[in-house]
Amino acid sequence: MWEFSERIGLFITLAGFAVLGYLSYQTVNNNRQIIDRIDSVETSLNSLRQSVSNSAIQQFSNSCDDVCIRKLVDEAIASISGITKPQKDQVIERIVEKVQTVSSGPKTQYITLGGGETSSTAWTDIPGAEVTFDVADFGQIKQIFFEVSLFSPSGKVLARLWDKRAGTIVSGSEVSHIAGDAVVKSSPVTIPAAGRTIILQLRSEVGQPIKANTSRLRVDTK
Question: Confidence class of residue 138 from pLDDT cuts 50, 70 and 90?
Fold first, then answer.
């Protein structure tokens, strides 16, 4: 992750030096010429990004959004004198566009539900462990999984998701674990589009106190 951050820093710095070099022998008022100069350095930038692994690109994409990228670029070119704000904004947007192109592709996003405990042998809603969202907001969905960290002293602990709007179990979400701590992942679950309130439910098979430490939905997009 740090290695890729350094590469992104180099990526941004190269663009900054391109602007700086241009400004050393051209006037600063010709925006079109500045953008043309940036075009000429993009071949070098493309070579740099091709040397970065897909996994590293994905890590950076997940941890640094558009605002984060703009901040990094803004800091990288802040010391360049003689560049006007419109020119600076054009440079920033251009580099953000290039980083987004690198980062495009399948992504994984997480929706946190929360945790809680019960000793009930009946399915029980866990207070506060719920979330309302629309899967359509995530774009093209490949698969969704339910992931939960479960604890039981000895007997079986069961967990599932409940669709409050539909009044039904979320298909494919039921999981279980016996004795101790474990992170359990469901088979792919089905959550229809439109606003849904998804609730974590737990059940203790033998009436012992059981617990979900954390739970979340993993959303893989195309």
Answer: confident
pLDDT tens column, 90-128: 666 666 666 555 555 568 889 999 999 999 999 999 999
Strands 141-163 and 168-169: antiparallel
Angle of helix 66-76 relative to helix 85-103, nearest 10 degrees, comes to 130
State the pLDDT confidence band at 1, using cuts at 50, 70 and 90.
very low
List Cβ neighbours of 61 (8 Å cut-off, separation of 6 or more).
103, 107
The values of phi and psi at residue 78, to 5°, are -60, -30
Class of domain 108-221: mainly beta
Query: For residue 167, what is the enclosing H or E element?
Result: none
Helix, strand, coil percentages in the chain from 3-state DSSP, rounded to 5: 40, 35, 25
Q: Residue type at 219?
A: V
- Cα separation, 26 vs 34, in Å, equals 9
114: alpha, beta or left? (left if phi > 0; alpha if psi -120 to 50)? left
- Would you list the domain boundaries of the chain? 2-105, 108-221
